[in-house]
Design brief:
The chain has helices at 3-8, 26-46, 54-87, 93-99, 102-123, 128-152, 158-187, 199-213. By secondary structure, the protein is mainly α.
Length: 218
């Protein structure tokens, strides 16, 4: 096997500031994210966004953005690093420049902040039964992640097992929570009969209710 072929299959050593790799304990990282999610859900439930002060709301946005950033960072690097490891040699300047791209991290941080604001606004309209479903999602996330880890472990290179386990488990968790929320809202939540009401009036009322619930602290 030639030197170039050997280099293309050689794994890049872990670098400072890089996403968790095979040497990072999966359990420690996942438990940290899980603890952050639990704390944030508790804060949002007991301190609704409409009632907190502006500094507290900003802290919530930054905390949620940090969780989003931690989730997406390994995923953003997977394709790039797989491509670089395949087409560039170990000493390539292009590989060194793009392996830990500061621009990618910066754009991800900005998009994480925007997504955090949108998620907090959406959470403001959750009902008590919806909160129960979200709470069930915390231990469910651990179970789904462990399932994805076991299924993907024999299929993927050790470098890419962790980010893909996160991605697959997140997709499964979102699907399960969506189904649970639909069932709860269809069969357990009582809604008024609006079949004889004017659709324009209903739209105006719905917009006014959503606007009041999603109001960001001034």
């Amino acid at each position: 096997m030639s030197t170039s072929q050997t280099d293309s299959h050689r794994h890049e050593p872990a670098q400072a500031g890089s996403p968790p790799g095979p040497r990072s304990p999966w359990s420690a990282f996942w438990l940290t994210v899980l603890a952050g999610q639990s704390l944030l859900l508790a804060l949002l439930y007991f301190l609704p966004l409409q009632t907190v002060s502006q500094p507290a709301a900003i802290s919530m946005v930054l905390g949620l953005a940090a969780l989003i950033y931690a989730y997406y960072l390994p995923l953003r690097f997977v394709r790039r690093r797989a491509l670089l490891a395949h087409i560039t040699v170990q000493q390539s300047m292009i590989r060194k420049l793009l392996w830990n791209s500061a621009l990618l991290k910066f754009t991800l941080a900005i998009s994480s902040l925007a997504l955090a604001v949108l998620m907090l606004v959406a959470v403001a309209s959750l009902k008590p039964l919806d909160w129960m479903v979200m709470t069930v999602g915390i231990p469910l996330a651990v179970l789904v992640f462990q399932l994805a880890r076991r299924l993907l472990g024999p299929q993927f290179n050790s470098v890419y097992q962790f980010p893909y386990a996160i991605r697959v488990s997140n997709l499964l968790l979102v699907a399960l929570l969506t189904i649970m929320l639909v069932i709860v809202n269809l069969f357990l939540v009582e809604v008024p009969d609006t079949r004889s009401a004017d659709i324009v009036v209903l739209a105006q009322q719905a917009f006014a209710n959503a606007q009041s619930q999603a109001a960001f602290p001034a």
